[in-house]
Amino acid sequence: MPTPTKKQIHAAAEALQRGELVAIPTETVYGLAADATNDAAVKRVFAAKGRPANHPLIVHVAKGDDLKRWAKRMPAHATALTEAFWPGPLTLILEKTDEIPDTVTGGQNTVGLRCPAHPVAQALLVAFAEIGSGIVAAPSANRFGHVSPTSAAHVMAEFGELVVEPGDASSREHITLLDGGNCDVGIESTILDLTSPTPRLLRPGAIGIDDIQRVIGIRPRLRDELQAGADVPRVSGALAAHYAPRTPMYLVSRETLAAEVDRLVSDGKRVAALSFTAEPKVRPSPAHTLVWIQAPLKAGDYARDLYANLRALDAAVAAMILVEAPPRNMEWDAVNDRLSRAQTGAGKHA
Ligand code: TXA
Ligand code: MG
User: Fold this and answer.
1) Which atom of ligand 1 lies at the shortest distance from residue 55's CA?
2) Could you give the CA distance from residue 143 to residue 51 in angstroms, rounded to a whole number?
């Protein structure tokens, strides 16, 4: 795994302190980080992503940070959850203090706090705490609506012309990239809202509802139970179209996948497929019309590879991407969530 040097981490912390953007590895996905207490820097994040200003950003804190500075109170369950799952892929929505600017939260009085487990993210937060606020607002380091990045190469694919090595930034608009290798978890953190009497799951992730229930003794409400009511917080990851490839994508059964691949390939169409089964022997046809990826059978492994696989399938520039639908159970909840949003958004952006 590539490990940035201490000097590079320090240079990245200085870039944050100057109000610049730093792309950071986390265990979930790469983030596009800015000093969360610096209004102008936070605005640069929205501009770089092309993200609407009312979609709040998650604030990342170092291990052992005193949350009292950022959260007005620690409601029931908050401490039990941070003790059980931090550092790790769980974001808690809490009431914010005035130290968190409104630009970060899209004007809401709540803030999403997360303590990332990746050692490079932790090292950066610690270095930044020595010279600055020590907290960074970081959405996934992709253009709005695109597939999230799980490697430094993916960040380059999103922001290539802006990216520089730590210490090389010559303009405010540059993005300093810290390469921490491939992300282990591969999909975004679980988001749990603790500002209502019963905790609510706003985004499923690697930490499942059963894991949370085991720690706090009650079952969080699911996002499906949150119908468009007035008090539903804005979650851009909850847009129906998100995490999307450019190529139209369809979730299909194994049987349909096999039949469609057969039909399209014999029609001379280019097809990209993600399946649990091995590549089929298709009828002889012009070369390279089928790009086939065999996905891991375990949900956690599938999630780790998901965005890299979607990017590879998208790069095939096929007529369509066909994805064999995973099982429909809690274990696959987060993966199914991302796949269905990718399907809805696919082929709809430039
Ligand atoms: O794993 C992750 O959480 C990654 C890494 C970089 O940490 N970050 C991430 O950020 O996924 P982003 O911006 O792509 O997604 C953040 C989600 C959005 O859906 C946003 O609406 C929601 O968190 N969010 C942030 N603050 C919130 C708040 N106060 N209330 C409700 N939702 C919030
Ligand atoms: Mg995102």
Assistant:
1) 21
2) 8
